[in-house]
Every structure is written in structure tokens, then in C-alpha cells.
Amino acid sequence: MFASSTLLFEAPNWVGDRLVINGDGGLFAVPAGGGELEPIELGGVPEINNDHVVSPDASTVYVSAEDGHLYAVPLAGGIGRRVSNEHGVHHYLHGISPDGERLAYIGLENRDGRRITNVYTVPAAGGVDVQITDDEFADDGAEYGPDGEWIYFNSERAGQAQLFRIKGGVVEQLTSDERVNWFPHPSPDGSLVAYVSFPPGTEGHPADVEDVRVRLLETSGRIREVATVFGGQGTMNVPSWSPDGQYFAYVAYPIS
To answer: Is the Cβ–Cβ distance between 132 and 144 less than 8 Å?
Structure first.
């Protein structure tokens, strides 16, 4: 466990024996077993939000910047590179394919005064975007499964937010309960999906909620409770499984 009373950190990624976390518009590394924070140089990238993923070979961290674009930053240091294109959406990064070739993100656009979010992918090296969903439901948290085919996401297409996955236009609903479920993270072997569950009636994914539950969904449909924390959208909004699938990381915001 790592704790701080001065820095609000969020969104842990697991990289080898370290975690990459966001805090105050920057990135830091910390040993998974606890230790000191080490700043990660962003290479001239604009201030970032708390959406970021790490390449499978642990050489690059991809980030969402407050200017609405996605950037690639070398973890060993170097100049950041913009990945995303200008096509009328604000980019929120959530996933990377197992081969490191594509990024999955949420594109936010304003359409007739309404905020519309859909799932997109784009080559990590830069290239043409592919729109995966095209609807007016609130979609978020797009993340690749371990087979590189299914993309997991949460959506309000069932009313309140529940977990789904999509492949080739086929959509499967994974949860259907009274709680508001966000940010599905499939384990490396695909046997479990870790996610964040908000109380019934929660709108969106607020940052400070007392009854936030970290859960595991089994392939059988059984749900296992892992923890109940004071937390919110930064608790586990990015992929956070350890490479061996034995652990995953999350953040709580306890009030003393």
C-alpha cells in the first residue's frame, strides 16, 4: 500500500513491479510494494487528466491531455508525440490492444447542445480512427480484452450504467443489477473482470462517493465483492491488473 496526505493520486497502471499513477496533472511511478514517488517526465505534453495506459512492452505510456488529444510518452524519457487526429471529438484514453498496436478511447462530441460519447480506436503509431459505437447512449471506459477482439465498456444503453462488451457490431451485456457499474478491466487470462460499482441512482462517475465497491465479475456471472471504499472515478478507471493476473491496483480516498 502507498498513502499520501498531500497528493491526490488516481488511476494506477501496473508496469512490472511498479505502478504508474496520476497526480495533479502529472505522472508518477511508485513500487507496487510501497515506496517513494518518482516523477515521470512528460516530454512537453500538455497537462494531462487521469486517463492513461502503458504499452505491453512497458516502453511507452499513452496519456489523455487536457487539450483533448492523446499522446505517447517514452517511459525512459524523451519527447512526447501526439497520436490522435482532429475529427471533432475530445479524446479520453482507456485501453490498448494486447499487441500494442491500437488504442481504445472514448470520443466526446457536442451534438445539438448534448454531450455524446462513443467508443473509438486509433493506431498507437498514428493513423485512421475507427468508430466502434455510433449511438446517443453514454458510453465510457473502453478497454480491450486479452484476445484483442472484444472491447469492454460501460454504457447507459440499459438505463443506468452497466458493463458491456462489443465485437464486430455484436454487443453483449455483462452486468444487470441495481448498482451503477463503470470501468470494466478484464484480467490477462479473461477469467475475471474488475470494475467499480457506484450506489443506485448515481449520475455519471463522481470523484467522491462513500459507498464505492470494487468488484470482480466471473465468467459464470457471479460477482465477488473485493472492497468498499470512499472513492470514485479515479479509483480504477484505467487497466490495473498485474502482468501475471494475480493482483490489481485501486485507489481509495479515506477521510480522517
So the answer is: no
> Are 211 and 228 a contacting pair, CB within 8 Å?
yes
pLDDT of 113: 79
Q: How many Cβ atoms sit within 10 Å of the Cβ of residue 81?
A: 17
List pLDDT tens digits, range 202-243. 988 888 888 999 999 999 999 999 999 998 888 999 999 999
Cβ proximity of 73 and 40 under 8 Å: yes
Enter the C-alpha cell of residue 174.
Answer: 455483462
**Cβ-based burial of 256 (10 A; exposed 0-12, middle 13-18, buried ≥19):** exposed
- Where b means 16+ CB within 10 Å and e means fewer, 179-190 reads bbbbbbbbbeee
